[in-house]
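note to self: dont lose this again. the chain is below, predicted strucutre after it. 131 aa total, dont forget to put it in the shared folder this time
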Amino acid sequence: MKEDEKIRQPELKTEELLRLLKDIKWEYGSIFNFNGIPFQIIITNVDELADDKTGEKYGEPAEFYESTEVPGGFDIYLHDTIPESERERILFHEIMEANLTSQGIKDSERHDITLQEEEKVFGKRDNQEKK
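---
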């Protein structure tokens, strides 16, 4: 196997992320850094996201995108209806997945890695089937 064909191990820093989560403010515009990457929280009003004709909501409850305001960083969009009891788990997932994105990990692989780490820390999600 050639050197460039070796499987690259992602840098997860799960314990560091868990410590950071205790200090993140759940408010619009809150900025923090993880693994050298700046993040900004954008709280979205679910009612404002509704389609005028159908009332259907746009987007997932939590998503991240490359930031347009924070150079080299990510914006994490969070619906304002996410229960306080789920916020730490959801932030963990979005930050971990964005971190893996910055490391060049592919879409499906980074989601699987993130979900595995999330389940190690928080257990299975309520909406997932038990295997």
